[in-house]
Write a structure and sequence with these properties.
This protein is mainly beta. It has 5 domains: 153 residues, Sandwich (Immunoglobulin-like); 83 residues, Immunoglobulin-like; 84 residues, Immunoglobulin-like (Sandwich); 84 residues, Immunoglobulins (Immunoglobulin-like); 72 residues, no CATH class. It has 5 helices and 35 strands. It has a 5-stranded mixed beta sheet with strand order 3-9-8-5-6, with no helix packed on it. A 5-stranded mixed beta sheet has the order 11-17-16-13-14, with no helix packed on it. Strand 34 and strand 35 form a beta hairpin. The two termini are 37 Å apart. It comes from Saccharomonospora cyanea NA-134. Keywords: Copper, Electron transport, Metal-binding, Transport. One of its GO terms (biological process) is carbohydrate metabolic process. GO terms for molecular function: copper ion binding; electron transfer activity. This is Copper binding protein, plastocyanin/azurin family.
């Protein structure tokens, strides 16, 4: 039985703000399509947490960076049951361009589980800083996941869920650091040095990062640390994951020296533009401008930029421009000796993202058959489905008969069992848009004098599992040849299917229900069935 998605959704940047963010997400998560049709809301408990959240036994983390062909990290195995899925696409996971990514679970593939409907859109610049958490219930089997942002490469993978497939996270995060700044011939940093710390944890995710400068005590790390005091310095750092594992303390040592007061050369400054580009060279959705300045004399003091003539402002991090249109960014840098570089500039164009196909297919149904005066179908009703999607095309057309599981639709469905029936149906296009479930209800009744109201309507005569290739026709009283083989009504022969087939074939040929050639094919099939 398919387990429904538990829709206790939590988005947070760090655990310290979890409680406040849970309430605020009630509206914003709808825009992110985190609560799909058919999800079952949790009953909720104190503080708004639901039972799946409190009982989740494992945490699975996906991360994304600048790549458009693969996730930065993703789990491959898990155990069934309550699970917290974490998806982060942020500067901390390596996204320096501001590009959006999604984590989408495929619910249209018959080869994979489809009981978790999930489509998280994350960006380093969204309200949650690109980090989201969702509580779900996983079933044994495989889940296919992929990225749905139009124009991206194939970011996809498979998660295998088996009993004992998951494991408790006992591995601490991996933590690295790098030091940047202008350096003299001895390797000392001139004027200042900036230390950037990066932490990764593919299992339960990074919960917190801390640093300590020159034995002054650990404090939370939220952004690169700039050190301007001349002298030798040591920065220590560590990280803790969502399972409580803390890494060993790492450290980096460097020296800052004062700049040359007699420096008369201005800094060297340059800029680069990055982002997704279309065939005309325009940046799709947004463009990110990164300015770099160096000064080996007294060191860089300030960097400034001006976007579209709005005036110079301090440059502290890459600038992302999302407004469609033509843009120009001017830039300059000043060193500690007061020398200012000449202004440089870059010009580029931003265009809107093509949202692609967001319209589900249109599905039509036709119900045919002979009807009596009470508008009930006599003997059988035939359900014919068709779907149309002019944008990305129909990928799947499926139906469910009388509450059964959904089945791919290939040819008209013939229903000949007397009683009331309901057929549900929907279609999914190649962009994953699913139509609402359609519904048709009807009643089938047996014809008067029909000796076999629930006929075996297989297309050919089957004898002991062997196909005779003879058409399985109505023998004249509402019963097919297969019905006659099953019951042999009106005959007194004994023995198995082969013996009954031999006797019945002679009678049907004598009654001209079948031809002599068809009789011989039935006899050959009976001989094959007898020899098995």
């Amino acid at each position: 039985m398919i387990r429904r998605l538990v829709t206790s959704l939590r988005a947070r940047r760090t655990s310290s703000v979890r409680g406040a963010v849970v309430a605020a997400l009630a509206t914003s998560l709808i825009a992110l399509w985190l609560v799909p049709a058919g999800a079952v809301p949790g009953a909720g408990g104190a503080g708004g947490e639901d039972t799946a959240s409190s009982s989740a036994q494992q945490v699975l983390t996906w991360t994304a960076d600048d790549s458009v062909t693969e996730y930065a990290s993703a789990p491959t195995t898990a155990a069934p049951g309550p699970t917290t899925i974490v998806f982060e696409n942020s500067a901390a996971t390596g996204n320096t361009t501001g590009m959006s990514h999604t984590l989408t679970f495929d619910t249209s593939s018959p080869e994979h589980n489809n009981d978790v409907q999930l489509n998280i859109v994350a960006s380093p610049f969204d309200a949650n800083g690109g980090r989201y958490e969702v509580d779900v219930v996983l079933s044994p089997g495989t889940y296919r996941y992929y990225c749905t942002i139009p124009g991206h490469g194939q970011m996809q993978g498979v998660l295998v869920v088996t009993e004992g497939g998951g494991s408790e996270d006992t591995t601490p995060p991996s933590v690295t650091s790098e030091v940047a700044g202008d350096r003299d011939g001895d390797g000392n940093y001139v004027g200042s040095a900036t230390v950037k710390v990066t932490a990764e944890d593919p299992e339960s995710g990074v919960e917190s990062v801390e640093y300590e400068l020159d034995d002054t005590g650990f404090r939370p790390y939220t952004e690169p640390v700039t050190v301007t005091e001349p002298g030798d310095h040591t920065v220590q750092y560590r990280a803790t994951d969502g399972a409580g594992n803390t890494s060993e303390t790492g450290s980096v040592t460097f020296t800052v020296v004062a700049g040359d007061p007699n420096d008369t050369a201005p800094p060297e400054v340059s800029a680069s533009v990055s982002g997704d580009r279309d065939g005309d060279g325009n940046y799709v959705g947004s463009a990110t401008v990164e300015v770099t300045a160096e000064d080996s004399g007294s060191g860089v003091d300030t960097v400034e930029y001006d976007l579209d003539g709005a005036g110079f402002k301090p440059y502290t991090e890459p600038l992302t421009v999302a407004e469609p249109g033509d843009h120009t960014v001017r830039y300059r840098a000043t060193d500690h000796a007061g020398n200012t570089s000449e202004e440089g500039s870059v010009t580029f164009t931003v265009v809107e993202v093509d949202e692609g196909d967001t319209t589900p297919p249109e599905v039509t149904v036709q119900l045919t058959g002979s009807m009596n005066s009470e508008w009930k179908y006599v003997d059988s009703a035939t359900v014919s489905l068709s779907a149309n999607d002019p944008d990305s095309g129909v990928r799947f057309l499926r139906y469910s008969l009388d509450g059964g599981s959904y089945t791919p639709y290939g040819e008209p469905v013939v229903v000949n069992t007397p009683g009331e029936h309901t057929v549900l149906y929907h279609a999914i296009d190649h962009e994953g848009n699913r139509s609402e479930d359609g519904k048709v209800t009807f009643t089938v009744v047996a014809a008067e004098g029909d000796a076999c109201p629930a006929s075996d309507i297989r297309s050919t005569v089957m004898i002991g599992g062997h196909d005779s290739t003879v058409e399985n026709v109505d023998t004249g009283n509402g019963c097919t040849i297969n019905d006659m083989l099953a019951s042999h009504t009106g005959h007194h022969g004994h023995g198995g299917p082969a013996e009954r087939a031999v006797e019945l074939a002679g009678q049907l040929a004598a009654d001209e229900v079948i031809s002599d050639a068809e009789k011989r094919r039935i006899l050959r099939a009976a001989e094959h069935a007898r020899s098995r």
